[in-house]
Amino acid sequence: MGQVMEKTSYGTIYKAKLGDGGTIALRLLREGSCKDGGTYLTVIRQLGRVRHDNLIPLRAFYQGKRGEKLLIYDYLPNRNNLHELFHESRVGKPVLNWARRHKIALGIARGLAHLHGLDTPVTHGNVRSKNVLVNEFFVSRLTEFGLDKIMIPSVANDIVSVAKAEGKKPGKNGRDNVDLPALVKVAVLGETTLEVFDMELLKGIRNPMEEGLVQALRLSMGCCAPVATVRPLMDEVVRQLEENRPRNRSTLYSPAETRSGSGTPF
Fold first, then answer.
1. Residue 91 gets which letter from DSSP?
2. d(Cα 82, Cα 132) in Å, to the nearest integer?
3. C-alpha to C-alpha distance for 49 and 42, rounded to whole angstroms
């Protein structure tokens, strides 16, 4: 079928070459994981109509004679997922300074806000760093959105439960099950926020408050509120991130954005 790229809760992702030389990403869904007939096809048609600069579009769907189900997406060259950018150590990996992280976060927020604002709203269902693809200009695009809606309830519940259980990757101190929101809340209330910023993030930052780091931290705490009704809507998250952009963003422009004269690239 093609080169295996990743195995996820939903199935296996392949990189496949087309006859015309193009490349696509294929997602083979787990056998027996989908709802019956028209139920899942309705959702797939809805997902196939979703288009946004910060979302990976579903291009086509195929069901084989033996019942195998394939979702077909664009393949993005020169991209990393956010998990790789945060956790992998390799030569040539770009530095994730504040301006770049802010652009990535704003792209994620815009993609989610678009999904939530559709005539029939779509919840992502599995937001995690491995489902955020980032290109060389730090434009972020979400994948795997809405797939829990085509799964039978037991599979969907398992996937969402795993997603909810994700947390901070164990640090050098060896502590497990770190409650990251609680850790950050203590730092914000105690005005010791510098302790929760990593050194790569702070490179070139003189005043975290003026550069919007502290504001973003407070916004993230609001998004982690235990009571759902007090969490900000994604439109509000986008607005606050737009209002607290880093000052130095010149290195974030792509050639296309510079040629278009469209102003800020995000």
1. T
2. 6
3. 11
Write down the pLDDT at residue 174: 47
Query: Which letter does DSSP use for residue 259 in this model?
Result: H
CA distance 98 to 33: 40
Q: Residue 193 and residue 208: Cα distance in Å, rounded?
A: 9
> Tokens standing for 138?
């730090």
List Cβ neighbours of 18 (8 Å cut-off, separation of 6 or more): 24
pLDDT (tens digit per residue) in 48-81: 999 999 999 999 998 888 878 889 998 887 778 8
Residue 106: the pLDDT is 96
| DSSP SS3 for 184 | helix
What's the pLDDT score for residue 53? 95
Copy the structure tokens of residue 31.
Answer: 């056998």
The pLDDT of residue 118 = 95
Domain 3-166+197-253 part of CATH 1.10.510.10: yes
The predicted structure's pLDDT at residue 164: 63
Domain spans of the chain, in order of start: 3-166+197-253
The SS3 call for residue 106 is helix
Mark the ranges of the chain whose per-residue pLDDT is less than 50. 171-174, 255-266
Residue 134 pairs with which residues in a beta bridge?
80, 140
Name the E strands within 106-254.
132-135, 140-142
